[in-house]
Amino acid sequence: MQRWKLTIEYDGTPFLGWQRQHKGLTIQKTLEEAIEKFSHEKDILVQGSGRTDAGVHAVGQVAHVDMAKDFTEKEMRDATNHHTGKLPIVVLKAEKVSDAFHARYDAKQRYYRYRITYDRISPPMLDEMRAWHVRFDLDVDAMREGAKHLIGHHDFSSFRDAECQANSPMKTLDKIEIHEYIDPLRPGKQLFVDVEAKSFLHHQVRNIVGSLKRVGDGRWQPAMIRQVLEARDRCAADMNAPAHGLYFVKVDY
Amino acid sequence: MQRWKLTIEYDGTPFLGWQRQHKGLTIQKTLEEAIEKFSHEKDILVQGSGRTDAGVHAVGQVAHVDMAKDFTEKEMRDATNHHTGKLPIVVLKAEKVSDAFHARYDAKQRYYRYRITYDRISPPMLDEMRAWHVRFDLDVDAMREGAKHLIGHHDFSSFRDAECQANSPMKTLDKIEIHEYIDPLRPGKQLFVDVEAKSFLHHQVRNIVGSLKRVGDGRWQPAMIRQVLEARDRCAADMNAPAHGLYFVKVDY
After folding, report:
1. What is the pLDDT of residue B237?
2. Which of A180, A209, B111, B239 could in theory staple to A241 by disulfide, Cβ–Cβ 3.0 to 4.6 A?
3. Both A137 and A37 in a single domain?
4. Cα dist. A48→A31, A74, A143, A230 in Å?
5. Is the same domain home to A160 and A91?
6. Are strands A170-181 and B47-48 parallel, antiparallel or unpaired?
7. Residue A65 belongs to what domain range?
8. Which of A97, A125, A143 is at the close of a domain?
């Protein structure tokens, strides 16, 4: 058997998320079926570095898969891409790796970016399902001030989904940065929230962004983020930013 | 009658272009019908600052329209947007202007941006129909050197479509700049070709970009751009970059 590392890009819009489900279109299932089709191998298992929710995009998701037959890296990439057909998933890179490599357990650092397009009344026609549309202006400096409270090792229970399966709510957020970005192709304003950690709780990034947006629109003072964090209660934040603004950017091994 | 200036954004993908045609979906027709629906006025004529081809996008197209009834600027914008329904067109801004204003004849300067995503083998899943996908790397400095030959007042016959209806092939290209742009959300590389002129010939921007790409991929030396320009023959360039990479950015009045 040869273990492969796949680097994957997808538009999350038509999918129910990463994980194979009994019914419905998922990213994992689409990749497994594409690989089974060209290789004629059975029970292919594509293991991702992390699950993404329905609607969440990826430009650098990583997965591993074991194959009995021998292929070149080019064949592995192009044949998978051919067999995903019209579905918006591609393998960017297929690399042969050692059997010891595990996409999930070996991940050292994960990077997400959240996109907000704001200060424009009319919905964005060229960024539909690609960014969270906020009609009014946001106080980005206040958001940055609020975000500082989240850096470091904390109990993130307040920013955790009820269905989160992690054993512990303790996580270390290594970086959270907010970049404003002017783009002539995007009327209004844009911002990116870039976060980086070894691992995240379910919905952690989207709950953080939802809370920071309340700071940006003036309903919360920046210090409220610390209070929410210290509450250790998922009802304290409870504002999940939409999935379609979130991008899984990359994984370090 | 009240004359209105509309600033418009659209995803060009589903449209046959700006101009109303006997059959088929166009941007002009979509706007006219939306305005007719909410205002109950007849024979509404929306006059654009310039036509865009099928598939070309806009983030700052400008048009004018005359209305008998009185509306607020907010009503005019939001009602039009409501009645374009699911089609990817929005009015970003609706402003009352004097009867003397003409979207086409009063335009002082027009700005286009062309987007290329390059140096990535797999097609872009999050930029489908939003950028020209070039699989290999491009020599951007060579493209910049080639582009310099186009600045100024020239006979642009070589970069003109056979169906172009302009009286003269003489145009003044005031600016052409190529920006490289690194974006974590876009694996591979990206570049923008920004051009600026009072007016353009039909397909002029796309023909220029198509020729510059031949310089970028090494098939042409930069000086070839001058030779093509001097040939004053549309067969000399004859490489139209795809419509879906082109964005009509703004108009100055």
Report:
1. 81
2. A209
3. no
4. 11, 21, 32, 32
5. no
6. unpaired
7. 2-97
8. A97
Q: How confident is the model at residue B163 (pLDDT cuts 50, 70, 90)?
A: confident
Which CATH number belongs to the domain containing residue B38 in this structure?
3.30.70.580
* pLDDT at residue number B22: 86
d(C-alpha A209, C-alpha B47), whole Å: 42
Please, which residues bridge with residue A91 across strands? A8
Of A77, A123, A185, the CB nearest to B247: A185
Mean pLDDT per block of 10 residues along chain A (253 residues) reads 98 96 94 97 97 97 97 98 97 98 98 98 96 98 98 96 86 97 92 97 96 96 96 86 98 98
What is the per-residue pLDDT for B93? 98
- Contact list in A for residue B59 (CB cut-off 8 A) is 126, 184-187
ipTM exceeding 0.95, yes/no: no
Domain count, chain A: 2
Predicted confidence at residue B162, as pLDDT, reads 81
CATH number at residue A225: 3.30.70.660
For residue B62, the distance in angstroms to the closest alpha carbon of chain A comes to: 14
Hey, what are B209's tokens?
A: 């970009």
How far apart, in whole angstroms, are the C-alpha atoms of residue A10 and residue B125? 6
Evaluate whether residue A103 is within a structural domain: no
